[in-house]
Specification:
about 260 residues; alpha/beta; seven-stranded parallel β-sheet; 9 helices
Length: about 260
């Protein structure tokens, strides 16, 4: 039986990944801070899919939380076959107006935590010569879109490089690059997205379905929806300094506009 560990599994894309892998008959290890939400989600999955669902409450911004998850990933008696690095958050204000402590916390969760968890999971995957790492990135990482975009650009680049390193061991690596997705992400960050048209929004289950197809096909990057696929192609040819200037204007606080 394949066991999948998913971070940020209590809501949004993390919960959608849990449903998606459970539907394929995979056992789950669900990681998030909120124990009650984890338990509720685990019960729903067990009832619907009849798979083993373990919860691991952990705050990944705390050293003890990271230690607990790395210990679970590296436990040879209970091997984890797939790791989904999904936990994350964003900030409403651009870097010059955001407390540096918040910026550091975001960088920790988006970059250092996936690095550590992946490093803990890989020895077992390499020795078994199978496994997969799925890293949730963002279309924000395709262009100079603030520190969040910079962190997600690292996630995508890290994934593409790691994929080559692990190919001889039969371990797959996929970067999932979603656009605007209907989750709690924007509300938690305090972002005003009221001006966005319905057409730009993605359903989290659709993002996961596409990701699982692309993982099975051993593709390096997964992008859902023709709009975002076209966007990903177009941004390769846009002058980055002009795009950075335009995006910076959209991120300025009202007082600076």
């Amino acid at each position: 039986m394949t066991t999948v560990l998913i971070t940020g599994a209590s809501a949004g894309l993390g919960a959608a990944f849990a449903r998606g892998f459970a539907a394929k008959g995979c056992d789950l290890v669900l990681v998030a801070r909120d124990k009650e939400r984890l338990e509720a989600g685990a019960e729903q999955i067990r009832a619907r899919y009849a798979v083993s669902t373990e919860i691991l409450p952990a705050d990944l911004l705390e050293p003890s939380g990271v230690r607990a998850v790395t210990a679970r990933l590296s436990d040879p008696a209970r091997p984890v076959d797939m790791l989904v690095n999904n936990a994350g958050f964003g900030l409403a204000a651009p870097f010059p107006y955001s407390p540096v402590e918040d910026e550091e916390r975001m960088l920790e969760l988006l970059v250092k935590v996936p690095l550590r968890l992946t490093h803990a999971a890989l020895p077992g995957m390499r020795s078994r010569r199978r496994g997969a790492v799925v890293n949730v990135s963002s279309v924000a990482g395709l262009l100079p879109a603030g520190t969040y975009g910079a962190a997600k650009a690292w996630v995508t680049s890290f994934s593409e490089s790691l994929r080559v390193d692990l190919a001889p061991y039969g371990v797959r690596v996929l970067a999932v690059v979603p656009g605007f997705t209907r989750t709690e992400f924007q509300e938690r960050a305090g972002m005003d997205v009221s001006a966005l048209r319905d057409a730009v929004w993605l359903d989290p289950d659709d993002v996961v379905a596409q990701a699982l197809r692309d993982l099975a096909r051993r593709r390096p990057v997964s992008i859902t929806g023709w709009r975002y696929k076209a966007y990903a192609q177009a941004v390769r040819h846009l002058p980055r300094h002009l795009v950075a200037s335009k995006l910076a204007r959209t991120r300025r606080p009202p007082a600076d506009q």
